[in-house]
Amino acid sequence: MLASNNSFTDPPLENSNLVLGGKRLEELSSSLLDVPIPIIENVVSTISLGVPLDLEKIALNGRNIEYNPSRFGAAIMRIRNPRTTGLIFSSGKIVCAGAKSEESCRRASRKYARIVEKLGYQAKSVVFEIQNIVATCNVRFSINLGGISFTHLKFCTFEPEIFPGLHYRMLQPKVTIVIFPSGKLNITGAKNKEDIDTAFRHIYPILRKC
């Protein structure tokens, strides 16, 4: 008599018994959920039009543009979508700040360039470059800044009597991470999101050990 198919079926495994990389699946999932993700707060870029600009004329004929040369040497333009601020310099360079992603920064920069072109300035060349990406993160545990400063001395600047945070200057990628004892981090100097993610993957185990 033939045995039923059920005779050849192994009993189902409990998820908590599955092992991956030396950890139970349940533990691995929990640990991954506990790791925070850095959030981009500001992307700063420059765009060069390759042509000199008359800022007084631009401020007079453009909309939502402020220009007070006695206070600041650039015209200030703001757009709502993406919500950013553009600093327009007479050299033909435009600094875009306030974007929350690389793509929105590119879109905003293109808008600023088109607005200036519509005011009578034909760009000779348009060179776009991201200068700085700032991200924040809260690891949700206290950090021993003295311990990090001692074990990673050549990368750190820590003067608690002057500033409460520790500056960790990473070489690859070339970013600076400002670490506070509360567990909050500021990551600056990145050129793309990959720099932010790589820097955080490097610093997180260091924070855990200290």
Automatic annotation (TrEMBL):
Superkingdom: Eukaryota
GO BP of this protein: DNA-templated transcription initiation
Organism: Caenorhabditis brenneri (Nematode worm)
Compartmental location: Nucleus
Family to which this protein belongs: Belongs to the TBP family.
Name of the protein in question: TATA-box-binding protein
Gene Ontology MF annotations: DNA binding
Keywords on record: DNA-binding, Nucleus, Transcription, Transcription regulation
Lineage: Eukaryota, Metazoa, Ecdysozoa, Nematoda, Chromadorea
A Pfam family hit: TBP
GO-annotated cellular components: nucleus
Chief location bin: nucleus
